Amino acid sequence: MAGILAWFWNERFWLPHNVTWADLKNTEEATFPQAEDLYLAFPLAFCIFMVRLIFERFVAKPCAIALNIQANGPQIAQPNAILEKVFTAITKHPDEKRLEGLSKQLDWDVRSIQRWFRQRCNQEKPSTLRKFCESMWRFSFSLYVFTYGVRFLKKTPWLWNTRHCWYNYPYQPLTTDLHYYYILELSFYWSLMFSQFTDIKRKDFGIMFLHHLVAIFLISFSYVNNMARVGTLVLCLHDSADALLEAAKMANYAKFQKICDLLFVMFAMVFITTRLGIFPLWVLNTTLFESWEIVGPYPSWWVFNLLLLLIQGLNCFWSYLIVKIACKAISKGKVSKDDRSDIESSSDEEDSEPPGKNPHTSTTTNGTSGTNGYLLPGSCSVDD
């Protein structure tokens, strides 16, 4: 074990040339980041999760009820053993041939079977109340941590001149505000890592899981080798649009469509400007070029920049989705769906008539079902 730890903490990988871990030990004159500080993130992540539960129960839920957001979920499908077996064991999206076979077996019309499969898909989806509570928590935390980051950074020299991120590196003392900001962000991402398995499932679950992993590794990595100054710029920049997204989703759940549209436009502008403009031209410029000039490259420097480039790749992917949503919104006249987060189900608008007999009902459809006019026969409407 000692050999493994010695290999892992090899100074020639983590630190610039002629710098040792002994040089970065805490003294009475200065405090530097220590790897063991990162353990603080685990109990704090648990505390954040508990605060979230209390917030959603006693703050977000009353706000949702005051806005007339109902806790009722989608309509429950009528119990049917044959269809349930097909749904759970064979397919959730029966094709036309299977639909006709089920129609003959149950003596139901095809449209009723399609409706049953849609309702069965939708009944496992979370209620609008739960979505609102989750978004309100994320909005509140994102707004707090972004506000704290801005208040902290405006007093630092490296916000105004990024070359200060590398002057006297790595002998840059750790301030109390910087330590709190870093550990708080790391704790929040750890809480998201675990809560995302119980949170509302989204279409980009895999991408978000990768994002959380990279974020945790990047925060921990930059803290250990004392790249925390430039790390604060990355964190604050990426927090800037999150509150607007959650606010837009809350407005959508509360059916304030005009406010939702306005907030989404603001979110899209901030997101694309910060992630595709400021981040590469400001942050990547200093980590790739200014640091090369002032400090010079070393092994962990390459890893750090590769992680930042991976984050930028994710930014490009999400920007593509946002532009895609904006194009749909322009064609429809409103923002009603969010491919990056949760696409709203049309189950609330489904017919509520029970499945009927089919002696006089056609078994063919025109390629649509329900009231939304674009679902394929027997398909589940998408809900991330």
Q: Can you walk me through this structure?
A:
With 384 residues, the protein is mainly alpha-helical. It has helices spanning 2-8, 11-14, 41-66, 81-90, 96-106, 110-122, 128-153, 157-160, 176-195, 205-224, 228-239, 242-253, 257-294, 299-332. Helix 7 crosses helix 11, helix 7 packs antiparallel against helix 12 (242-253) and helix 9 (176-195) crosses helix 11. The longest helix is centred in the last third of the chain and has 38 residues, at 257-294. The chain starts with a helix and ends in a 52-residue tail after the last helix.
> Given the helix and strand composition, which structural class is it?
mainly alpha
How large is the count of helical segments? Answer: 14
Percent in helix = 55-70%
Kindly state the mean pLDDT as a whole number?
84
> Runs with pLDDT <50, length 5+?
337-384
Overall shape: it is: elongated
Strand/helix succession: HHHHHHHHHHHHHH
Number of strands: 0
The biggest sheet, with number of strands, parallel, antiparallel or mixed sense and barrel status, is:
none
> Which strand-content bin applies to the residues?
under 5%
Radius of gyration using CA atoms only: 26 Å
Give the quaternary arrangement of the chains.
Answer: single chain
Spatial gap, N to C terminus: 43 Å
Pfam family, one: TRAM_LAG1_CLN8
Membrane topology: Multi-pass membrane protein
GO molecular function, one term: sphingosine N-acyltransferase activity
InterPro entries: HD, Homeodomain-like_sf, Lag1/Lac1-like, TLC-dom
SSE inventory with pairings:
Blueprint: H1 2-8, H2 11-14, H3 41-66, H4 81-90, H5 96-106, H6 110-122, H7 128-153, H8 157-160, H9 176-195, H10 205-224, H11 228-239, H12 242-253, H13 257-294, H14 299-332
Helix pairs in contact: 3-7, 3-9, 7-9, 7-11, 7-12, 9-10, 9-11, 10-14, 11-13, 12-13, 13-14
